[in-house]
Amino acid sequence: MKVYTLTTAVAFAAFAVAVSTTSEAVGGQAKTPVAQTVMNGAEEVSGIAVPDTELARDAARLIRESEGELLFQHSVRVYYWAALAAKRKGLRVDPELLYVAAMFHDFGLAESYGESHRRFEVDGANAARDFLRRHAIPEADAEKVWFAIALHTTNGISPNLFPVAALLAEGANMDLVGAGYNEFTAAERNAIEAAHPHPAGFADDFMQAVYEGLKHRPETTQGTGLADVMAYKDPNFRRRDFSYLMRNSPWATKR
Fold this sequence. Notes:
By secondary structure, the chain is mainly α.
């Protein structure tokens, strides 16, 4: 697996996936089955391209089939934001690892985890690590992707880790709430929006997808921004109050 410095245009061929024209709405999330994968060596977004490797193609196919179009396109944008941030900062990063991390970072929201009571970040991290192991990727690299995904919603940690983790969190925050918006040029933002635009109503649709993936395990969202989504979607959800827990602990009450 090669490591590249993303300070120049990445010389990979990108790919586009042709999909069927019918879709099924599941839990407020458009589920679009994949018909076939078509290689498109001409596609490049603001000097960044998706790695043209079997690993990247397999990851994209799996995520698109499992998550549906909304989360898949979000994951693609996250990769581009992350790769552009690496280019701007002169960070050395393996594009394949960064791409797989971006693809799998929301995998824990997929329907297959409808009975899981782990944090969705851990479900996605476990799936990504298993995927990389099946492709004979070195264990150290698989562990880096695991930590990048597992910690991407925990603010303040990822920026202090290795580049894949820092860049994944930065790309996800940029795509969801515009964090670091002005650190990207207008040309970069326009290029990504032209190639993979945020759909109308993205915020509400994304929050619905999060809610559908977490409503059976709301306790796992405590301490992250996901708890805000749960409170927005469910009037009966209550955020955990750590001060209350301390003041009512056995140590404080002597019970």
